[in-house]
Each structure stands twice: as structure tokens, then as C-alpha cells.
Batch of 2 targets.
Target 1
Amino acid sequence: MTYETIAEQLKELYDRSWDSFGMLVLEFPAENIQAIATRLKEKMGFDMFLDLTAVDYPERDPRFEVVYHFYGSKHDLRLRLKTLVPETDPTVATLTGLYGSARFMEREAHEMYGINFSGNDDLRPILLYEGFEGYPLRKDYPIDMEQPIVEYRK
Amino acid sequence: MAMMEFITTRKDELVGWVRKFSIFPYPFVTACCGMEFMAVASTLYDTDRFGAALPRFTPRQADLLMVVGTISHKEAPIIKKVYDQMCEPKWVMAFGACATSGGFYRNYTVLQGVDKIIPVDIYVPGCPPRPEMVIDAIMKLQDQISRDRHPIFPFEEQTPAKL
């Protein structure tokens, strides 16, 4: 199992691929995520789902880029998947049916960027506190905005 | 009359002396400054020399609230409640840069200084502060405590005597 065989087996599901410091990166359209993840988990032995984050490019039209990291413990290979998500409908299918750790990571991506995960009905905030408004890791959230819970003195 | 003033200033001195050498700190430790607090409380730099050795990890029994480490907005109601639970007389020490003014964090989570929600008596800058700075802060706080007035007679309110 090498990066060439992985790229070969997923050939029809992704758009382009490149190499990033020795790790394979695949970019794919957003609707293929469950198909790719199922194939990675069952056939190619990627049994660990490491990370799910997003990147905000406000000057570009598909504004968000959702990034997934996978790791296979049997063959010690890492893989990064990227997908572009527009701002008008930031929805990606959920991976909670396949990987349990996706539950918390999708909650974090939802509360920080506002990305919806269809199929996951438990998208409560995980790190932010109640009453927090806005999505803080977007680039248009002002850095010195404070939303205090307790009233300030004086 | 001067005799009464002599007695009341000595009384203030006595109460101040008693209070300043028996401080019970409550180290409300949240972050890395806690390591430095442990270093101050240990044997090389000792707070026991100043009477401030025995930490009481409950606000009901403590009189110095040491806010050690970063306070986030989520933590702010907790520390306000802890401060409200302490009985008079009480003092607050803002230990470290994060408790003084938010430290090097300027983002959506960190409270920019614990003095936005509770009154602070002494600030200790540093990230983390040297133990000698903390001891200096305790000594300055002891000076503040000993200079407090404790008026019990009506004439004491009018004459701000200096010790």
C-alpha cells in the first residue's frame, strides 16, 4: 500500500492531487466525501480519522476549504483530503457513521466557521460558551471583539 | 485627646500587624503561572517566611485570592462567584501577565485582565513572574494591609493620621 496505489484506487473520486512534504493531498468535490471515506476505511485500511478543520479564504468564491486528515496504523501512511465549500451553502456530509471522533470535530468546525454537516443532528458548541454570537475563526470576525458573560466593573 | 489618637493609631497598627502576617492565600490556578506559584511556595523561595504559607483551597476560609493564570470569558462567572464567596477582609493579587491584562492573548476567549470583574489590590507582571517578584508583591501587599484604618470611634473618621 503506497501513495500511488491509493491515488490509483480513488481515481474517479477526486479532482487533483499533489504532494505536500511527503504526504499525499487529494482535492475532491464535496459530495464525494462519504464515498471516499468509506473506501478508505474498509478497503485501504485508514482506520484513524485524525482531524477535521476548515480554512477561510474570504477573497475567493468557494470560501471555505474543509480539510480532513486520515492515518492508517497498519501501513503507517497519512493522507490529507481537501474540499471546497461555498459560503452560500456551507454543507458537507457527515462522517459520524464511519468514525466516532468525527462527532466532536464536526461540532468544532461548525461553531468556529459555520460549516453545516448534513446528517449530524448534534452540532452543539463544544468550546465556545453559551450566548456567543458569530463564528470566531472566520477572517471577518474582529480580533478585539469581546463578548463577556459577566458585566465589567466601573 | 492626643492620648486617644495615640491609642487608636496603635490599635490600627496592631490589627494591621496581625492581619498582614497571617495571610491565607487561595491560589486560583488556571495555567502555567501555577508552576511558578508552586516554586514560590516551596522551600527555596518560601512564602512561609511571610506568614502566607498555608493555602486554603476554599474561598470561605481564605483571605487572599491569587488569580494565577489566564482567565477566559467562560471562567469569568466562576471567579466572580468565588470572589463573592469570600468574607471580608479580602484582597486580590493578579499573578502573571494574563491575569493582569490578558497577557499575550488578544482574542475572542481571554478576559483582558481580571480587574475587569473583580477589584485587584496588587498586580504582579511577568510571564511567569520570578519568585522574587512574587515575594516582593506579598511584601507590598503586607504594607498596604498594615496601613489600613479600622475606625471604631467617631473621631477616627475625621483625622486621617499617618502611621
Target 2
Amino acid sequence: MKDQIQLLMGNEAIGQGLIEAGCQIAAAYPGTPSTEILQAVIDRQKQAVEPLHIEWSVNEKIAFEVALAASYTGKRSVAIMKQVGLNVAADPFMRTAYIGVKGGMLTIVADDPGPHSSQNEQDTRLFCLQARVPVIDPASPAEAKDLIESAFELSEKYETNIVLRPTTRICHSRQNVSISEPITLGRQANFELDTPRWAATPAFLPALHRKLNANLEKIAVEPDWQPRWTSGDNSQPRTALIASGIVYGNLVDLLEELNLSNKIDLYQVLMPYPLNPDFSKKIHEKYDHILILEETYPVIELQLAHPGAAGKQNGPVPREGELTPDVIHQALAAFLDLAPAEEKPEERRGQRPSLCPGCSHRAAFYSIKKCFPTGIYPSDIGCYTLGMNLGAVHTVHCMGACISQGAGFYQAYQQDEGEFPTVVVTIGDSTFFHAGIPALINAVIQQTRMIIVILDNATAAMTGGQPVPHMGIAAGDKPTKAVAIEPLIKASGVDFMEVCNPYDNERFESLLKKADEYIRSPEGGVAVLIARHGCIMDPLVRKAQDSFLITINESCIGCRICVDKFECSALFMDRENKFAVVDQDRCIGCGTCIPVCPVAAIVKQEKS
Amino acid sequence: MKQQIIVSGIGGQGVLFLTRVIAQIAVNQGIPVLTSETHGMAQRGGTVLSTIKIGNFSSPLIRTAQADLGIFLWEANLPVHRPLLKTAGKILINTDKDGEGIRIDAAKIARQLGNAVLLNLLLLGVAVNHKALICTAEECEAAIKQLAPARFTGQNLAAFHMGLSSST
């Protein structure tokens, strides 16, 4: 086991690091690019030498609070989320800076410069600067893993929460990583009462704030966390390059390709906040020109405030998007007066993503669009965001927003004369539990008239199928109590609720129309339809449903409705663009496209 | 020895598995390796790209015109990711049409083996056959056996051998 080398994804390396460091409580809500961290902890739980509680929490705020209280007992804990998840957890996170922790607590927040799979490219390091929480910015999967044990030690030394901030290119990068035995801490839960601290009222907060500031000054000068210097050969006098995170790795490779390794002073900033004031002073005294490369916001740049800095505020570094090797090359060439980087060919978009062939969301969206062609469709975060390909998603904002946005649309329209438009909200089951329930209660008590379709596919599908509360399964496939959706809807005061498999388009469409009549009736309010069909990525769901051989016969008139409006990626137009064709490699034989064809050219037969 | 490789396809084609196999071969040889992969929404049938850097590198990303080898599982991605390849970089592509690079209708052969998704390892076989990768057939087989779920090992190896012995 010792010194074994494994090929690990960054998220797996972090999960392995958590087990090795003796973490005993791990809580997360899934979100790209962070999801595989908790999954890696689940997959490796047998390695743990001490008890380990792992949970997929209902949302990030809850994950954070569970990990926080566990740390109060002296045990090591972690809360894991994506960058926008920290917004959800912001309330407890901000206060924790003042109150602190007991056992080591890490908050792992995965940022997504680009963004690749997020609704913005906010920088957790800047969040930490405002929250006054130390943040570590690893440059590779192996480094992320290596830093976890010492980050727990730092957290315990100062009784403070520490943030580890990997980015997509760390999370979803693979590298050869060395594996070690987990340490044994032998801790028993021991919550020592300290009410002025754990329940601090305003009277106690100035002192806690003073302590926080004093701690930050000490953490800034901790020897293990100082910027790492690689000396140049003075061929570029009074010039330095400063980078953090994966951008540092990109820069090292670029310098080598350009034969510039060890020619210019180079710094890797491991802990972008708090930055050591002596480091800042040294940079000011020693250099006239510095290039600062960091993702995504100018956090180091703001703190250094160097008059000769080239960066995002003043200089050649783009203020948005990922700092890819090509982007860095252009910035470096401008900074060092090198021959300009060859013009990058215009970026071309590849194939857009699409709901899977057989996905029940597609059938649901098609029916919604068909029933209410002039409706307003607020939607949310998940696979079903792809309903926009069918024109059945008009807004996507943040977890759970669709229900409150739907209510806001209704309130604005109902003030005017005439009929209000049918607002059809679509929300996934996991998103509904995460942040939809308070929004539903609010919509009901504000007497909103709208239709909410809960797209219940029994899993958190977009992130790879994590368990959801109504299925009675917890992390690691452990059985638990199921919390059903229907009673929650009823208890929220909803009087119209129906459940339907959207594969049955006739029934689903008749229920949609019935729901529209209800919301417009004198006693009308919020109508909820639960569109229930298992996620087609689940092999058990695939196995349990009929699969037919789907073909398109010669009566096809080439109207493109099945290809464009239904938008199934198993349907395409032939080379002459005359007829629709079924791609048998991708078709799963569900037959949901059959009712879409106006001339009944799509036919099914039993598979031979 | 250094090599930079891109694997390009669409979600569901097995780009990630092929990426892992190539990286595992390097690990088994004791050579440092870094990969970068596409996860998240793009995996739902959208264009995905993996990069693999074998040798002493610090980051997994590949700059324009630096890749030595491009393995294209999805032909329509060629114009999208072609710029990442060196002018003299090798192209290996699953297609039934004529054009640049080493071309093979891998999907068709894989379908005959029972599943179009096997085209990923078929292309690996072709790459080894053309000495486009720094490894032997045995090293590939070992990595496939290590990573494939037991019940798929047989068909994965069959696809690999089909590529290895193809006349393309």
C-alpha cells in the first residue's frame, strides 16, 4: 500500500487525501466539477481506519453546517461543493470565520473558470478574501492531495476553517499520484461547551473579530504556505512572473516550450489569501515589472497593488475566461516583448449537448410546448436545462429559482388587464429538494396561479446519478428513510397535484390542460404535475422498459419536426436532407418520437 | 520522451475510457502523465475533448499546434480540434469518408462486434499498429484488463485486436 502509485483524477486524489488525513465526517451536494470528490470518499471508505460518516446533503448550506458541528466535537470534517454552492452555504460560511472550528475543517470549493459547467465563473479566492478565510490554490491533482493533511493541521492550529480551491482542470485532470496509509487520530466526539463562542451574540463578536484578524496575520506568515520561488538567471532584471493554481502549471510548461525556464524569477502562490505582507514588500522592492496570472479574478493582483503589475486590471491578461496555455502565451509574449504568439485559429464550436435519446424530459418538454405555445417557461439547473434546445426553457438562473421566478412572472402579468400567460415551471427532483420547497410555499401563500412540472427521474442525473431524498437511498447505496415528494407538495398547500409518466403523452397533455383550467378557475392557485420516469442513464430503468425497433418509412415528408422540434439525437436527416433517419447506434427504442410525426411515418416493431 | 495526445469525440462514445487506458499505460511504464477530460453537461452527447501529456509536464492542457497525435472518434470534430495538432502530427479518425490522416470505419467494424461504442479501443489498436503511441500491444492489453469491468474485458480486447490487425 505504501508509496503505491495510482492514476487518479484530481477529485479522486482529493477524496483519497481526505481518507488518509483521518477525515471522519464528509458532506457534499453534487455539482460539476466537484462531484467526484465525495464519490471517491465513498469508494474508498473501506480504507478508513476510523468511523467515517459520508452524506449527500440536501444542499450545500446543510452540508457545511453538518461538517461544522462535527468539527466542534474535535473530529476532522469536510464540506464539499462547487463554487456557486458556496453562495448557498454563504451564511454559515461567513460566520464561521469569526467563530472558528475545533477539529480540522476543510471546505473544498471547486471553481469553474471558463465556465465549462456553471452559471458563472466566480472566484472562491475572492469570496474568501471577503469572508476572511484562508484559501489554498493547488496546481495539480498530486499537489491538491499532498496539501490536505497539512491543511487540516493548519485548521487545527488556528481553529479556523480552511478552503481548498481546486479548479475544473485540477478536478478533471488525471495524474500519477502516490497513495499512503490513512493516519489514526483516535478521537472521540467531545463537544466542549463554550456558549460565548458557539452561540456568540453581538456582545462577543468584536473580540472574536479581533482574534480572527490576529490569526490571519499569523497564518499569512506560516512557513509551509509561503509563495514558492524559482530563481531566474537575471537575464530579465527586476522582472518576475507570479501565478497560482493550474495557471502555474500551464506557465511552467509554456516557459519550457519557449526555452525560458529558469530565465525569469517565478513565484507560485500557494495560499492567495491571506498573502504575507513581507512577500508583498519583497515584490515591491525587488521588481519593477511583474506579470500576474491567476483564475478568475485579480485576487493576488489586488492585494499586491504593485505599480508595475501587468495583469487583469492593467495589462495583457484577459479578465474573463480560462487562462489556457494559448491565452497565457499571448499575455507572456506581450509582457516580455517576445514575438507575438501565432494567431490562434478562430475557435469553432463542436456538437452541442442534448437530452439523451429516450430521456423522459424530452417527451415532457415537447408536450408542454405543444399545449402552451405562448407560455413562459422558467426552468432550472440540471440535465433539463437542455430543454432549451426544444424551446421549452426560457430562464435558467440558480438552484430553485424557477419556482420563485415563475411566481414573479405571474405577479407582474396579473396586474395588467387581460389574460395572464400560462407560466409552466420545470424543476428536477433533486433541485426541488435543494431549494424548491421554500419557493413553493411562498408561491402558494402569494396566491400564484401557475403550473409547476417536477421532472422526477429519481436521481441527480446531470452530475452522474447521486441519490435523492425520495428514493430511500443514502450515499454509498445505504438504505435510509424515503421522504416522498407528494406529501411535501400537499403540505405546502397545493390543491391540484397529479402524477404522470410523460412517455404517456396523451395523458400528460390532458393533465397539462386540466392544470391550466385549474389555475384560471376562481379557486385556482399553484398546480403541480409530477412527471415521473426513471433516468434513462440508469441501466435498471433501461432494462425494465420496452425497447422497439424504430424506423421511419417512405411516407416521411422531410418536415424535420422530429429532428428539430423534438430534437432527439438519435434522429437525423439523410445526406440529401430529404428524409429523417434513425441512428440505430443511439436509438434506445423508447418510441416517444412516434406521436410527434404528423404523417405517422415513425413506426415501431418488436425487436427480433 | 514526451508525447502530447488529444482524444476527440462526443459524450457517450467512450472518450474518457480511451483516455484512461492510454494514461494507465504510461503509469504502468513508470512515466509521469497528466490528462484533462470533459465532464458535466457536455457529456450529454456534446463535443468532448481529452488531452494527454506523457512525460515531464506540469499541466494537462495542450497549446495550439503542440499535439503529436489526434484520435478522432467523431469526424465532425476534426475542424474543431485539428488546430491543436502539430503540422506533422498524426491523425487517426473514425470515418467512412476519404480525407487526411489514417482513416478507418471503426464504427462499422465495432457494430459487427456487437456495439458501436467499442470503436474507441479499435482505434487504440490502429494507433499501436501505426506506431503512433509509445507502447506495445501487450502493454495496451494489460491496461485494458486493469480498467475494463470484468464482463466487458473480452469484447474490449477483441475490439483492440481488430484495430491492431486491420489493414488500414
